Each structure stands twice: as C-alpha cells, then as structure tokens.
Amino acid sequence: MSSGAYSDEDYRLIKALQKGDIFAFNELFLKYSHKVYNFAIKHMEHEEDVKDLVQDVFIKIWNKRKDIDEKQSFNGYLFAITLNMIRKYFRKKVKDYKLVDRWLENTKSYSEETKLTIEYNSFRERTDKILNELPPKRKTVFILSREQGLSAEDIARVMNISKKTVENHLNLALRYLRKKLVGEIFLLIFFFIFL
Known about the structure:
195 residues, Rna Polymerase Sigma Factor, Chain: A, mainly alpha, 77% helix, elongated
C-alpha cells in the first residue's frame, strides 16, 4: 500500500530505488526527466547545459536514494534538487563573470579601445550605479550572493537575519535591476549571469 505522497507505482519504484534497484531508477528517470528538462530549459540558456543538469539531478537522486522521505512528494523532492542545481549553475556563472573582469584587466593594453571593453565597462558602471540605489542591507545581500558567491544560509548567518529575509532581499534586488536595465547593452549577459 502506497504512502499518501506517492501513486502506487511511484511508491513501488521509490521503495525499489532505496534498495539500489537500477531498473526502478531507470523507470523514474524515464517518467520524470522530461519534467526536469522542461523546468530547467525555462531558466537556462544552453540546451547542452540543461541536458547535463538533468543527468546531474538524477545522479544525485541515485546517490541520495536512501535519504528519500516516503512521506514527502517525490515531485517536490525532485523540484528542490533541480532548483538547487540551477542555483549552483548560476553561482558558477557569477564566478565566470569575475574571470571576465580579470581577463579585461590583464589584457588592458591590448583591448582598452575595443568595443567589448567599452561596452562591458559601461555595463559594470551602470549596474554598480543601480546597486548603489538599493537600500544598504539589500545591496549587501546582493553583493554577498552574486559577487562573493555566498549561499542564502551563509548570508543569513553573516548578517544575522533569516534565510527568508535574504531570499526576499535578493528577489527584490533582481527585480529592481531587471527593471532598470531594460534596453541596456549587456542585458542578455545580465540575465545569463544573474537570473
């Protein structure tokens, strides 16, 4: 008899998965991978990255199979893992953003007059100016998250506020930045890095 959180079929598959049944894992992958894909493709730019993310999500499910709570929705569990992986993906992009800064600094003598450098620097100046318009606490939360790569939990601990408050500050900051940057030159890069 199934738990209330699962259909009879899912309950059977989860129980088998917890015991290491690779066939049950394959069935769950076939049943749910398209949902992960469809959710991720709305948030990520490159299809190859989405395909990699789907594989990573299911590898994590396999590795954490014994931790799956039978009283919780598998859909919810899957969504939580997927969302966490997407956040990690964008945190990595933020680090890549810092690499672009470093590259521009190191190649200043060669690229100072190039259109890319001028546009990139203009974009950075614009975003810095907009960040300075944010309330101080919101600006600090944003910088700790997007420029220093700290998680919401770490920021909450550092600033002595709740994780929910951190998430609210980030959402409001991103909404404000998006609104202010409509039509700006590096808007696509902005969405790619900060979404």
